[in-house]
Amino acid sequence: MEFRYLGNSGLKISEITYGNWLTHGSQVENDTAKQCVQAALDAGISTFDTADVYANTKAETVLGEALKGERRESLEIFTKVYWPTGPGGKNDTGLSRKHVMESINGSLQRLQTDYVDLYQAHRYDTETPLEETMQAFADVVRQGKALYIGVSEWTADQIREGVALSKELGFQLISSQPQYSMLWRVIEDEVVPTSAELGVSQIVWSPIAQGVLTGKYEPGAEPPAGSRATDVNGGANMIKRWMRDDVLTAVQGLEPVAADCGLSMAQLAVAWVLQNDNVASALVGASRPEQVADNVGAAGVRLDDDVMKRIDDALGSVVERDPGKTAEGAPQTRVA
Q1: How far apart are CA 330 and CA 107, in angstroms?
Q2: Whole-model pTM?
Q3: Of 54, 82, 119, 148, which one is the catalytic site residue?
Q4: Partners of 47 in the β-ladder
Q5: Is 175 in contact with 147 (CB distance < 8 Å)?
Q6: In the chain, what are the domain boundaries?
Q7: Is 5 noted as a catalytic residue in this protein?
Q8: What is the per-residue DSSP string for 81-117?
Q9: Topology of 3-208+265-302+319-328 in CATH?
Q10: Backbone dihedral angles phi then psi of residue 263, each to the nearest 5 degrees
Q11: What percentage of residues in the chain have a pLDDT greater than 90?
Q12: CA–CA gap between residue 34 and residue 28 (Å, rounded)
């Protein structure tokens, strides 16, 4: 495993971050989830990402149990706040001071830790003044409940505003967590250059495009039984955007590229996002321990310019690059 600094800070995190969005507390049994976490630890992963909304708080509980007994100082634990949790009451969502302060306390209890290394705004809250949110985050940091602050799926302008306020309030906003993969490159034109200017790193999710970039989905064929594309609870709605024959055909063209590099398709996909200097870590999940070992094989891999060009040539026009997609996919009102 290799490690990178997160933003303009002294915090180092593993190039591969283990995330439990679609698995812990919902898709896989708790024993299997714990085995996956142990496989991550065994592979040298020290960074773990979750959120209070995942499986309506159950994912945090499973991760806390799985990491119990590990040396806390050797881990970097991330979680998030924004989406509805609990019974979904009027204040159980968003980035109001009330929800932020209550949510961090709940997350720490479930994770069985006194602090998280990174506390992230899971989306931008259009109904709460940004000043209120940032003041709440400043207080969370001053109380020692979080060491650093990050955001997820914010636009370049929103990141710029957030960083400016964080500096005024005396804390560090150091990360952005967007979707990013060979197929989904919408952050490259605006979010990445703005972040690089401001000392913010990307922790990217879905680098394998919900499994599409493994090559297991073939054009004109039914998805394999038990795969994510067939599992409503496991992300079938997210993956359907890529389940088109033109996309799947293009992805099949990556097989010889991966083979020539001595990598699996998944490793090639993860290694590709790590070529971006503004990416500090790639988030990977797993429903089986052996998947962790495969993904970790991408750590430290450097792809030369010829390989990067072959990837671009294979995928061609199926790549989504429109920077407006970040704002387009964001909630316009607070979700209840």
Answers
A1: 24
A2: 0.92
A3: 54
A4: 76
A5: no
A6: 3-208+265-302+319-328
A7: no
A8: E-S--TT--TTSSSS-HHHHHHHHHHHHHHHT-S-EE
A9: TIM Barrel (3.20.20)
A10: -120, 155
A11: 77
A12: 10
